[in-house]
Write a structure and sequence with these properties.
This protein has 147 residues and is mainly β. Helix content is 12%, strand content 38%. A hairpin with a 5-residue loop joins strand 5 and strand 6.
Length: 147
């Protein structure tokens, strides 16, 4: 079985690109906290991830550097020859599902604070009009939603 589940933050704003046959995709890195070592320090892993088609368009439209996401997919290895003739290998997560784990209000609070200084949502948020009112539930946007 080849399944990967990650929860972490994007390390940069994703950019939408297209293959030669005009299929949209994006490559981005997810920073994931590792298991603490014996001395209590955590090492962060940076996992390369690829999303395709409408999912890639949604990621590029709605996510930014630091966005908290859940990625489910599979590992895929590839190889290529670099400009010096050396064979290189890479491993990426091919995303099947990407869930946005914070609301826009939470993301704005995060960008206005120090990194990882999580704050409660502001009391001036109108809960009745906020589609993320369950603060804490994951958000999944169906690919057909925006069509």
């Amino acid at each position: 079985m080849n399944r990967v589940l990650l929860v972490g933050r994007l390390t940069a704003k994703p950019e939408l690109r297209y293959t030669n046959s005009n299929i949209p995709y994006t490559r981005f890195s997810v920073a994931v906290d590792g298991i603490p070592s014996a001395n209590g320090e955590r090492r962060t892993d940076f996992i390369n991830t690829v999303a395709w088609r409408k999912q890639a368009e949604n990621v590029c439209q709605y996510l930014d550097k630091g966005s908290l996401v859940s990625v489910e997919g599979r590992l895929q290895t590839s190889n290529y020859t670099d400009k010096d003739g050396n064979k290189r290998y890479s491993m990426d997560v091919q995303a099947d599902s990407i869930r946005f784990l914070e609301s826009k209000a939470q993301a704005q609070n995060r960008t206005n604070s120090t990194p990882y200084d999580f704050q409660q949502p502001s009391s001036d948020i109108n809960i009745e009009n906020d589609p993320f009112a369950d603060f804490g539930d994951s958000v999944s946007i169906d690919d057909n939603f925006l069509e």
